Amino acid sequence: MKGYYEGKAAVITGGASGIGLALGELLLSLGAKAVVLADVNAVKLQAQSERLSQAYPGKVLGVETDVTSQDGVKELIARAAAFGGGRLDLLFNNAGIGALKSFEKTTDEDWKLAFDVNFYGALYGIRAALPIMRAQGGGHIANTASGIVFVPMPEQTMYSATKSALMGLGSSLRYELWDDNIRVSTIIPGTVITAIWDGVKPPAEAITPAQAAAGILAGVARNEKIVIVTEQDRQGAQNAYAPERQEGIDAYMVNIARKRKKGIMNEY
Question: Which alpha helices (DSSP H) does 84-208 contain, by range?
Fold first, then answer.
């Protein structure tokens, strides 16, 4: 992987914790020349940026960013390119919210926020980064989706819809930008132990952010269209829409739905 990331400039949204922070730290260890961490949590962002700056002087910049603001994302991308000496080689659209709620309890405002963070935040980043990447002769955009695009879970309609839209955007855009030497990958990071669980106990097979980051960067370096980190998600991708498996999948998912309606949210 080092050969792909050495000397490159990257920006990561949702970079103050979880997968985003792990990506930033691993990129720096692989020789990235500039890593910009963006996050809405200013306190965490400052603490982690300062910590990494001590280990990698002059290579880390923290930029407080609300990805629901298009102007804010434009400013982030401009600052990232300036910090990278005029280059922006890698854009990781990683910011996201879990949006765990029964459909009937959701409001239009809930749906708007979910799409603003999980989908439009990435869209704004892509729009702002494309002119820079075209001018420099290429780049790589990686959007963090979820295994839920293969297995949409009950009580997670907003998360399922927003992440599925993000995967559709990236998969289509990959071919529009192919001849511009701008690569586009969709990341399926696995079930990762992050703050997105918001008090719900993650399943036993959940992996750490560092494990997710290692799998993500390996797949991005290989220019994979869909970077699937875990075997569980790989099986989900292969089986989710196989006609011969639908009866079993329906039974499995209905059982989960019934448990979640009773408040048992850590069943998978």
Answer: 108-115, 121-136, 157-176
Closest to 10 (Cα-Cα) out of 56, 44, 66: 56
The answer to whether 159 is a known catalytic residue is yes
Nearest CA to 189 out of 22, 77, 34, 11 is that of 22
pTM above 0.85, yes or no: yes
Please give the Cα distance from 199 to 64 (Å, whole number): 25
Count of H-run helices and E-run strands, the chain: 10, 7
Residue partners of 111: CB distance under 8 A and separation at least 6: 158
d(CA 181, CA 133): 9
pLDDT in tens for each of the 268 residues of the chain? 899 999 999 999 999 999 999 999 999 999 999 999 999 999 999 999 999 999 999 999 999 999 999 999 999 999 999 999 999 999 999 999 987 889 999 999 999 999 999 999 999 999 999 999 999 999 999 999 999 999 999 999 999 999 999 999 999 999 999 999 999 999 999 999 877 666 667 777 899 999 999 999 999 999 999 999 999 999 999 998 899 999 998 998 899 889 888 887 666 5
Catalytic residue among 4, 120, 159, 175: 159
Task: State how far Cα 74 lies from the chain centre.
Answer: 18
Specify the long-range contacts of residues 167-176, CB closer than 8 Å, at least 24 apart: 167/143, 167/226, 169/119, 169/122, 169/123, 169/126, 169/143, 170/141, 170/143, 170/145, 171/225, 171/226, 173/126, 173/141, 174/225
What's the rounded Cα separation, in Å, for the pair 5 and 17?
21
90 sits in which H/E element: strand 90-93
